[in-house]
Amino acid sequence: QTVVTQEPSFSVSPGGTVTLTCGLSSGSVSTSYYPSWYQQTPGQAPRTLIYNTKSRSSGVPDRFSGSILGNKAALIITGAQADDECDYYCVLYMGSGIWVFGGGTKLTVL
Amino acid sequence: EVQVLESGGGLVQPGGSLRLSCAASGFTFSSYAMTWVRQAPGKGLEWLSTISGSGGSTYYADSVKGRFTISRDNSKNTLYLQMSSLRDEDTAVYYCAKHLSGWYWFDYWGQGTLVTVSS
In whole angstroms, how far apart are CA B118 and each of B12, B64, B88, B90? Predict the structure, then answer.
């Protein structure tokens, strides 16, 4: 059973930069996993931030960017703002019509 | 404007059945794959099932395979999730999501519908 790993929590100072990662319990994440990233505030539906590793969804500010760093997918947030404080999820396509979400990262801005 | 709106959630006893619906508007429904994702209370997102635009291909997570059935009626612009043999651990908010053009990513999400499995 493949597990998609994310940091359970992360802190960033206002105005700072944070890199959240999305890895695999076994193996490396590449663009072939078509990684995407979603933002969720409590009680709200997820919002698509990044798809296809690094493409920003419509309306997403360019403070959010995606890439592959080493053997993981990464979501980089620059100039962190108070309303960036929420949960972030990655999802990887495993092939054969199967997707797996990471456990999510709770980001604190303080 | 693209919209997807879930309905059909509620309280159901263990072992019972429920059908969720997701009404879509603002796009050519039959051209896009659709997916169901759920979120148990205080937990993360879990992919459940995906259906192709034509409805001819369906895929399921192991956790729901054999118990849940995804389907769509393209004439009604509606996605469904038929859930049976429900368990306590199926209690969650269920979201439908439209895929981007291309198979691999979700873009628009509904607000979710709460399913509570309890006696």
Answer: 6, 18, 6, 10
* Contact call for residues A106 and A9 (beta carbons, < 8 A): yes
What mean pLDDT comes out for the span B60-81? Answer: 98
A8 Cβ neighbours under 8 A, 6+ residues apart: A103, A104, A105, A106
| Predicted confidence band of residue A1 (pLDDT cuts 50, 70, 90) | confident
* A48 close to B (CB below 8 A): yes
Q: How far apart are CA B114 and CA B110, in angstroms?
A: 12
Contacts 24+ apart (CB under 8 A), B48-57: B48/B81, B48/B94, B49/B81, B50/A97, B50/A99, B50/B99, B51/B79, B53/B29, B54/B30, B57/A97
pLDDT band at B101 (very low <50, low <70, confident <90, very high): confident
**Tens digits of per-residue pLDDT, A42-97?**
999 999 999 999 999 999 999 999 999 999 999 999 999 999 999 999 999 999 99
Chain A residue closest in CA terms to B35:
A99
C-alpha pair distances (Å), B20 with each of A93, A96, B41, B94: 24, 25, 18, 8
What percent of chain A has pLDDT above 90?
Answer: 98
Q: Is A88 on the interface with B (CB under 8 A)?
A: no
Q: What Rg value do the Cα atoms of chain B yield, rounded? A: 13
